[in-house]
Amino acid sequence: MSLSLFGLLALVSAVMAQTQNCVLEVPPNPLTAQGLATPYKMSGCDQTQFATEACFVEAAILDPATGAIQIYNPLIINQNSTRAGFDFITPIVPTLPDNAVVGIFFGSNAVTLTLTGDTSTCVNGDANGVFGQFAYCNTPAFFSAAFSAVSSGLIKIPPPGTSTKGTAQACPVTRDFRMVDMDQSDNVDSTYLLINGHILAQNTPANAKKYSNATEFNNGSDNLLLNAFLSPTLGCTAGTFEAPCITCASGSSAAMALNELQSQFFVPTRGPALVPLNDDFTVDAGNNGTVEQSLIKTNLYRAGVGQPQAADAANASSVTYCTRYAASGIFIALNEELFTDATSPAPAASNNLFTFMANRFATSFGPVPALGCQTIFGIDSPVNQTTDGNGVVIAATINTQVLQDILDGKILPLGQTSTSTSTTSVNTVSSTSSVSLSTSTLLNVNVDSTTSSLSTSTTTTSALSTTTSISSTSTTTVLVEVVSFFIFVLNLGGVTPGVTGSIGSFVVLEEIFVDLPGAASAACKHQFNSCASLAGSAFSGTDCLNQLNSCNGVASTASPTASTPGTTTATATVPATTSSSPAIATGAPQNNNNADAIAPATDASANCPAVPPLTVSSCTASATSTVTVTVSAGSGVASATGSAHRHIHSHLRHRAAEALKPTIQPHWRA
Ligand SMILES: *[C@@H]1O[C@H](CO)[C@@H](O)[C@H](O)[C@H]1NC(C)=O
Ligand SMILES: *[C@@H]1O[C@H](CO)[C@@H](O)[C@H](O)[C@H]1NC(C)=O
Ligand SMILES: *[C@@H]1O[C@H](CO)[C@@H](O)[C@H](O)[C@H]1NC(C)=O
Ligand SMILES: *[C@@H]1O[C@H](CO)[C@@H](O)[C@H](O)[C@H]1NC(C)=O
Ligand SMILES: *[C@@H]1O[C@H](CO)[C@@H](O)[C@H](O)[C@H]1NC(C)=O
Ligand SMILES: CC(=O)N[C@H]1CO[C@H](CO)[C@@H](O)[C@@H]1O
């Protein structure tokens, strides 16, 4: 079985000017057992041409009562009755639990995939074009239900763990900058059988046994790369997350839904790699053959793979993504010896796992239609590749110094200069990112001032201890003003979003609730999701869960005693370490006219160890309203990009709402 990668294949295909545009007819009621067991019909492409034209469907089925997940791969056949691949073996019918929540993911080896048929729950792009090789049906609902099941303890996700070979390293997950490619999170693990060259079938254990001479085909994916190559090579197989699968020869399978879930709750140290604006699946083609970035399309894509929405373009920044992506080349170089001894996933392209990874990174880091990182930084390829007479990469040298300089902010995007004066800009950005963690998912929080020591904000300067060390320390004070009927003071991963509105109609973000406990509980859930999206090395999903439980406790008794919400100034969002209890930021109500709804401030001293990748070297909290955190950047963390200030105003709410609209009313390309 050979393997290549969707994105790279897309690139190659684009270069070769192939035009396989597949149209896949979604059967009626695709989320039911019968719909799942009805073959999807392909036109425009030939499903038997696996490497260049096949498409793949992968459903994740959740039982919300038990948390059980099963994977099921609907079959695809050719619509054209005179073609091989029109004949098929009747699909096996899955057993769905009551209230099953079904999400369906699509992957394709062709250039584009467009869905037709019963697409009422499906999204395959925005009004300006399809994603390309990816589409989904109902997966936002799947992830929402799955996140709840994780929060209530029904789903247990195995931790990815630490590698047992080579140097000890955190095992990669799919949202890891060390292993993403030019279009992350586009992978399904589906495999199918082609029997006697013309009959298509699911790769069920029975079919696999009966037709042992059939051709098994799969789509190349980051999942396969991770599960079949990187994990074994690094000694990381203990953390593989699989689920039962009746359409998989072995009876169980990894899956896109599982990879994204694991990534959600075990966030890599450098932060999660989330679909950015420069992902080639989320750009739109401009009129002149230009490529135009689209926040809407990026957010549509993210919604389909369980990733948080980006509040603004800065939150899906290609510069930030490219900066962090530099870590990949360093990771590959670090593991050169280990990877050189491992099999190449694509022998026709590279002779071992090291040259494969180096080539894949170089291509992805390269010019548009890849991520365009090289162009952003104005550098030559950081990878020097040597090929043999057949074009197979047989050696590679990675310029890790250049990559480290990008990570360290010493190499800046073209046209950008550091704005720092006496303190380092590295810390400015680090500070900013710790701030944006708390604000961008909490859109109706008014951030009064999020300042670094470079700031002139009068609100916070009194609380700042001036930075003296030029090299690596700065002080950040974060003041968040929350207008809310409900204040909950534990802030691990961010404050609870405000509950506003008026009695009888409480608003949390864009949702309306009749009663305050219901609204407060929704606020708790948002905080949990934010917490969970950050959970990883600094604090665990369990910490988030504990926080959620105590938040729900306070929420259940919340009652407004005033007709207008109170204003509370609170916060620092510095995650605690795994071993400690959730970080506590003191909330000191300033305008506390609804004391009943405000939980008592429990602790004046914030518990503030590390924000990955920052190290907290001192931390003091006053009993009033500010927490002062001194952080120092870890090595190779941030670049000198962005500004030290981040003001999130209420209009962002509307922008976010706009951005979300297409999720509700997907547009389809004719
Ligand atoms: C159907 O398949 C046959 C045989 O490959 C081909 O000649 C014909 O053009 C196809 N028809 C359509 C509509 O694609
Ligand atoms: C594959 O196996 C089937 C059933 O055992 C047999 O009928 C068929 O001829 C075989 N095909 C090939 C190409 O060997
Ligand atoms: C193509 O690009 C040129 C130069 O940027 C611009 O003047 C022109 O209007 C564009 N054409 C279209 C159809 O967008
Ligand atoms: C975007 O916001 C999320 C939280 O919603 C945060 O985790 C992430 O670091 C932000 N990313 C960027 C690039 O600002
Ligand atoms: C790439 O390798 C070749 C052969 O070793 C060498 O001549 C060349 O200078 C290298 N290029 C870069 C950019 O390192
Ligand atoms: C893109 C990709 O990996 N395509 C592969 C799908 O599976 C077939 C059969 O294993 C391979 O030949 C393709 O290369």
TrEMBL record:
Sorted UniProt keywords: Signal
Region (Disordered): 556-598
Highest taxon listed in the record's lineage: Eukaryota
Signal peptide per UniProt: 1-17
Protein name, entry field: Uncharacterized protein
Organism lineage: Eukaryota, Fungi, Dikarya, Ascomycota, Pezizomycotina
